[in-house]
Amino acid sequence: MPRRRALALVPLALVLLAGCGHAPMPEKSVERKASEELAKQIGLAPVVDCPDDLVSRAGATMSCTLSDPNGSEKEYTMTVRVKSLENGVAKLDFAIDDEIG
After folding, report:
1. Which of 13, 35, 64, 76 has the fewest Cβ atoms surrounding its Cβ within 10 A?
2. How far apart are CA 1 and CA 37, in angstroms?
3. By the 8 A CB rule, do 13 and 89 touch?
4. What is the rounded CA–CA span in Å between residue 6 and residue 27?
5. What are phi and psi of 16, to 5 degrees?
6. Which DSSP state fits 44?
7. CB-count exposure of residue 87 (10 Å: 0-12, 13-18, 19+)
8. pLDDT in tens, 61-100
């Protein structure tokens, strides 16, 4: 199975610092952490593009786009969900959805 295809099969959990209170998690931070975690799981760090900061609230979700850093035109959608938030620490789930197009 090619590595690009494996992206669609990798569910992830990740712990991120959310900052003080319930401040949103910066878009770039979510993108970087998602790419790093995928790299650990499949050996390929995809380019992750999220539309905005992520609300720091349990159950909050956001859709991001993944693309191959090696230039393939295939893209995937990924749902980022805040599982829980305790003392400024958010537990996130990253679920790879279907291939776009």
Report:
1. 13
2. 20
3. no
4. 24
5. -125, 145
6. -
7. exposed
8. 999 999 988 888 889 999 999 999 888 778 888 888 877 6
